[in-house]
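Bench notes, afternoon.
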Amino acid sequence: MPKQLRREQALEYHASGRPGKIEVVPTKEAKTQRDLSMAYSPGVAEPCKEIFKNKEDVYKYTAKGNLVAVISNGTAVLGLGDIGAEASKPVMEGKGVLFKVFADIDVFDIEINEKDPDKFVQIVKSLEPTFGGINLEDIKAPECFYIEKKLREELNIPVMHDDQHGTAIISSAALLNALEIQKKKIDRVRFAVSGAGAAAMACVQLYVALGAKYENFTLFDKDGLLHEERTDLDEIKKKFALKKADITLEKAMKDADVFLGLSVGNIVTPDMIKSMARNPVVFAMANPDPEISYEDAIAVRKDIIMATGRSDYPNQVNNVLGFPYIFRGALDVRARQINEAMKLAAVKALADLAKTPVPDIVNLAYNKKNMAFGPEYIIPKPLDPRLLVTVSPAVAKAAITSGVAQKIISNWENYNVDLNKRLGLDNQVMRILGSKARRDPKRVVFAEADNTKILKAASIIYDDGIAYPILLGKETRIRKIALENQIDLSDLPIIDPGSEEMEEKRNLYAELFFKKRQRKGFNYYESKKMIVERNHFGCMMVETGDADAMISGLTRNYADAIRPALQIIGTEEGVKKIAGMYLLLTKLGPLFLADTTVNFNPTVEELADITIMVAKEVRNFNITPRVAMLSYSNFGSSDSPEAKLVAEATRIVKERNPSLMVDGEMQAWLPFNKEILKDNYPFSDLVDQDVNVLIFPNLAAGNVAYNLLKEVGGADAIGPILLGLKKPVHVLQLGSTVRSIFNMANIAVVDAQMKSRVNTEDVVQNYKWWKRLKKKKPEVET
């Protein structure tokens, strides 16, 4: 998609609703006058007096222990350079989001309008009472070295310049594993290094700490080789300076074991890679374009192990693997600094994690059957949920052992449990699904393309690589809406089912529809007329393989949107009735609710069927279903027909699927109160389990609960997800947001991946065919 479209989407994302990406949320009740009196005056005086008597109590009575400052002066922002403090703020807010999402660390971003290093240090130093840690970000070299060094010396809280140490820690873990696979010793390998900025110098220093020798490095910066005759080298760079001054990067790479690139793109040629020693390691980490492309490097060396900074190739060196978890561990033991021992502990933890079996949820995210330690997997993936409980404890232990911790953790098992509770082990479900969708995008038909929300969502979906959208509707009408809303549709096919060019396809679809419905009330004339309707046309595209999934329902009655799918596609083998399920993203992790949209008053057998269908779908998300069958009764406390129906359905489900964790009937609050469930109903299969599936006795109960959780409980809702159809057709809730449509597209693509055997190349070729139908764009309707 054009850059302009990406620009508009990015600006809309940051500006829509409440501007920016972060907010402050109270962690204590603040609803009554008494609450307010406790939060502020006069109740707030008591913790103030305690902290005055013992300064360390600030960690007990305030948020300091979980609060990090992300601080920048905007002098080296991303690839934008010195753009100033204000312009750096979106980046710092984004860093705060990553801290929260991956490690539950709260952040205030602070942009300081000061370039003088000493003044900058004094400003940051004065903030120490507020924060438990300082993350320096996007400060240009060489000032960043001086600033970090001074702050580490003068502050009693952990300070880390992530641009330096983040890349160093992640690449060190990758290097250790790459050298192990290539059967090389770090103290013997020769390094050719392009780049001598903040990140590169931190990398080579950490490599030395791991055993590399100064004399085995050849470094180049923008002015050329680092050699002893240069007068512009600082004390750190002098340690790597060579005696000779006539060495080029091309010469340095001849017989080198390792190339490290943190410079600019496309400066390394295939011949330079060819000249390296046997079993070379190449870390080309310039962004967005590596020093040499992944394809060019592996084409000339089959024995190479390569890493980049990009997510679309194996072995991405991504700082998000480090900083959230390093600060989490440092904060939890109130470390006075982040020292070498803690960095090396993070390196070892990351390196070791890559050698352990990869969880199914990570394989799902990256569309792999079974990732395993080897040349294309030398560091963990950013979406691996084990990172928090692997890296943070390692860092915390190193802080304690090295004597910089002010708090000792004695029960590490409980600490790991607490870490998992912070985020919910499975709360990354949408990131996982999005990642899986991008690896095998499918063709998704949008039946209501004459709608601004659909067009916005379709353009984002295509730009994000989630799917190949196909838009149904009057082309002049759709293009007018797109023009008015600055939505670029140049790469998206628009199909009008009633147009002349669709006559042949329409006749084919009508024939097929007539064969399916000729003894169910439809004659041939009605079949031809029906196919012009976009929902029927879209479903027939999915049925015939001209598309992989369909999304509809934004502007029409739910039953009307489902009916064509049932008439044309039909149900899976053994399914008597379809069902509707919502996925709610909550603070407890994902919750799956059913039936919330289709079956009014299911029978015992139907309720059992719904439960088994939902459990199967949840497993498709690589989540183990733990099912609560809900009622107003707890295990026979009421003998009403409805309570008995749920109890009997539970019995049938257990009989048909003995391995499924399921129990009921029970009231909705009970499975979430583990103590009461265990004390009063110790026989239950759900004792000590984290319930993630709720089955309701009827449509009214499910629909009411879903809407209350969404609107009052603040849960992010995705759905309804239709269960039981042979092929993917999903129906939006009336008035869904662009975000909801985007999420539903993720679900539809992953559903299509599981149900379709169509090869990716065929999908792309078919999509190009749809696009070629229009030889020229018609005039926009006025």
